[in-house]
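Figure 2 data, in text form.
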Amino acid sequence: MYITNQSKYIRGQPGEFAAHHIAYIPKLGDKIHDWYFKTFGKVPTAAMLTHLRRELIQAIWLLLLDDEMMRAYEEGEAIKLFDDILRAMVLMSCIKFLGKWMCPRCLSLKEMVWLVGSKSDMRN
């Protein structure tokens, strides 16, 4: 999870630890083979295991995208952070074109894009 009005130039740097882990999707354990055999009387095929993995991911998405999350996604959310400033959360896709840099990692200014591929650019 990212806080979207934190600078994308900070979020793009791995050393800033701007991402927060909110969920881990578990692997299907070995017990699924035993359960499947006991329930259906045959060993699960590779295609069936793939299907079960996809169903697991969909079930986890249902848990993550509850009513509260969907309301925050659709309407935005105001959150008071550690500095006691109330910030409105917005979609990243809405503010991407407003950035000064082409990329959150390289810090190349958009106004300098016309120099890409030039002799001076190739020296750097």
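Caption note: The chain has two domains: 8-92, 95-123.
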